[in-house]
Amino acid sequence: LPADYTPSPSLLKGKTILVTGAGDGIGKAAALCFAEHGATVILLGRTESKLEAVYDAIEAAGHPKPALVEIDLAKVTEEQCMHLAQGLGEEFGHLDGLLHNASMLGERRPIESATFAAWQEVMQVNVNAQFVLTRYLLPLLQAAPSASVVCTSSGVGRTGRAFWGAYAVSKFATEGFMQVLSSELENTSNVRVNCINPGATNTVMRNTAYPAERPTDNPSPAEIMATYLYLMGEDSIGVTGVSFDAQ
Ligand code: NDP
Predict the structure, then answer these.
(1) CA 30, 107, 180, 138 torsion-angle sign
(2) Which of 91, 164, 181, 234 has the fewest CB atoms nearer than 10 Å to its CB?
(3) Is residue 21 within 6 Å of ligand 1 at its C-beta?
């Protein structure tokens, strides 16, 4: 990413972009930011009231009318994904962007005392849901003139650290998912696939993981959007298989 990257105000005009976990934190900021840059944003999440608040904010600002999809990724089924793909296909014809942002932190404890149920839930939300959504949305991405899939990684998805358990392992899996998919699509389609590690950002998740930190010492989600815009817009055409740091 060029150090002085300045996205055009109309960078995402005419594009349709789905954001998971769009009701709070980084996903909310990304949805608002993509809409501000001209995109029609599909807000996917599990808490209707939060999604509605983002929807209303986008409408009130006069940005393109978003769409709202309520799905709990801990329970997502193939049927829901097929249904979603069919609905989006009918309404938009194709999908220009997919931001896999939703994740859960899960238990912060040693593997020796971790519970299998909590481990499975983290893997379900952070890894399995990412796969099954991508699996069924891929035809819509391939139907776009150029499309971008962005997965959300973490520092503990590159170097393991004690007590980060399933979350860290899920982020290694996310890096792997990005690399495998990117490699498969590199020469045969217009879909690029990359990762962003947001870095320490002031959200509920960060503040849960680091209760002793002063939240405002970290940047707000809105302050780390340059890399997200770069990867979603056409300035990053040809860039694939790369893991970026947003900070
Ligand atoms: P938040 O916890 O603030 O937000 C997570 C979002 O994901 C929420 O909108 C939440 O919905 C949604 N979500 C969680 N579980 C589900 C589910 N089962 N189904 C649907 N949606 C779900 O986290 P952040 O904004 O901090 O994190 C965003 C991404 O960035 C994550 O992938 C995280 O791992 C990553 N990250 C964050 C860092 C940070 O410092 N903040 C650092 C490194 C990585 P709801 O609000 O309804 O619970």
Answers:
(1) negative
(2) 91
(3) yes
Q: Which residues are catalytic?
A: 167
Average pLDDT over residues 164-177: 98
Q: What number does the ligand 1 atom closest to the CA of 167 have? A: 34
Q: Which of 131, 40, 141 is nearest to 89 (CA)?
A: 141
The pLDDT of residue 205: 97
Residue nearest to atom 37 of ligand 1 (CA): 198
Instruction: Report ipTM (2 d.p.).
Output: 0.99
70 Cβ below 6 A of ligand 1: no
So what's the pLDDT on residue 3?
82
pTM above 0.90, yes or no: yes
Average pLDDT over residues 191-201: 98
Structural tokens at position 189: 């389609």
Q: Angle at CA 86, nearest 5°, toward 37 and 90?
A: 65
Domains of the chain by start residue, with CATH? 16-245 (3.40.50.720)
